[in-house]
Amino acid sequence: MSSPRLEALLARLYTDERALAQFLADPRGAALAAGLDTDDAAALAAADRDGLVMAARSFAAKRAGRSSQAR
Amino acid sequence: MRDRFGLGWRPELAAGILAHLDRIDVVEVIAEDHFRDGRRALRALRTLAAQVPMLLHGVSLGLASTVAVDDARLDRMARLMAATDAEAWSEHLAFVRGGGIEIGHLAAPPRTAASVAGAAANIARATARVGSAPLLENIATLVAPPASTLDEAEWTGRILAASGAPLLLDLHNLYANAVNFGAEPLALLRRFPLQCVATVHLSGGRWITGPGGTRRLLDDHRHDVPDGVLTLLRALGEWAPQPLTVIIERDGRYPPMAHLLAELDAARQALAQGRLRKAA
Q1: Which of B33, B67, B143 should be substituted to probe chain A, the one whose Cβ sees the most A Cβ atoms within 10 Å?
Q2: For chain B, how many structural domains are there in total?
Q3: Domains of chain A by residue range
Q4: What are phi and psi of B216, to 5 degrees?
Q5: How far is B234 from chain A (nearest CA, A)?
Q6: Residues A4-21: tens digit of each pLDDT
Q7: Rounded to two decimals, what is the model's pTM?
Q8: For B23, B39, B171, B227, which has the most beta carbons within 10 A of its beta carbon?
Q9: What ipTM did this prediction achieve?
Q10: CB contact, 8 Å: B149 with chain A?
Q11: CATH number at residue B127
Q12: For residue B71, what are the CA distances in angstroms to A47, B18, B90, B95, B172?
């Protein structure tokens, strides 16, 4: 387990609110639709949902903070 | 070599740091802030490095990934190392992009044999390209890395063993991960490869609540170093006999310099107490 595809999907979940909402509604389906194999899809579907949302919000705040900085 | 104590170099703190170099042994500069610097700015950094030992700290390479690190990014780090005469450089055990998407911060990859192998390959590539091995930093995460098969201490230990690189142990990150995911902080510290620690980060954070009511400690570098982290530093002083460089990171809600210097003194005292316990 762990692959470029899995990292790509996590990157999308951490940066795209709509993708995260779709994933939370149907984790296994969203993972399979993203091209993950059944093992990775099952592992991702078991992920800590509250943690995923908190991480995504934290990354969004970081991006917003960075873009508001002058430097 | 002796234990050293310093601060993360930030524009907001620069004047205060320069005014107190008698109490600051080392500074740590965010590398990405200077990747696009011209000759004059690089000369200024080199002048700073001549006054106080300087470490470069990378935040965007994404070494802990199954995807190969970008050579152009490594070349920027190599250029900066050469231009500034910095003592060493560091980077996080994190991935920061995937499928062409920039996450914008440090994300914990699935902790698996595949990400160990990917990280080891990236670290070897980085070492060759930059000319020295990076210090590798453990990161804080608000989500237990999905699809993991290894726990954090084992995953980190395997990467260090495979790469031979030293560890930049962030004690607040370790503390946050411990309290967020049900581990006892001292027990988690004990399981890290402490013989590999060369540098230590200290910082603070705040508690946040998720939509489902989960409470987690966020490592935000905007608050004081908590007592629990100083307890870990004391233990590290006892368990890791090698000389350590301890850096306090602050990235907002900047207090007066006197306050940061007092935090440095508290860190000095905690590490010294640990050294004494070891000697007793």
Answers
A1: B143
A2: 1
A3: 4-66
A4: -135, 150
A5: 30
A6: 999 999 999 999 999 999
A7: 0.96
A8: B171
A9: 0.93
A10: yes
A11: 3.20.20.150
A12: 32, 34, 16, 16, 31
